[in-house]
Write a structure and sequence with these properties.
91 residues; 62% helix
């Protein structure tokens, strides 16, 4: 702030005045989505859905003394992380 005030008072441009301007702007377009990868992610989610229903049915059918959520919740959580990484970190 004080440096700009001194320049205003003295009326001289700073030494690197010419270097402070933008010389070039590059606009990068996002990479197009890979249809094969998106179909693979969709297939993975369908397998996770089938696995979840199968786990619930198997635990109820064979009276296994665990909660099916111990298998389902980590699977869905890691799948969410992977899906979010693909869609939000695509650079």
């Amino acid at each position: 702030m004080f440096a700009n005030l001194l320049q205003l008072i003295t009326g001289r441009p700073p030494v690197d005045y010419e270097r402070s301007f933008v010389r070039e702007v590059r606009v990068r377009r996002p990479y197009p989505r890979n249809q094969r990868t998106e179909k693979l992610i969709l297939a993975g989610w369908l397998f996770i859905l089938a696995k979840s229903f199968l786990m619930i049915w198997l635990v109820d059918r064979y009276h296994v003394p665990i909660n099916a959520d111990w298998v389902i919740v980590p699977t869905v959580a890691f799948a969410l992380v992977c899906t979010a990484a693909y869609f939000f970190l695509r650079d």
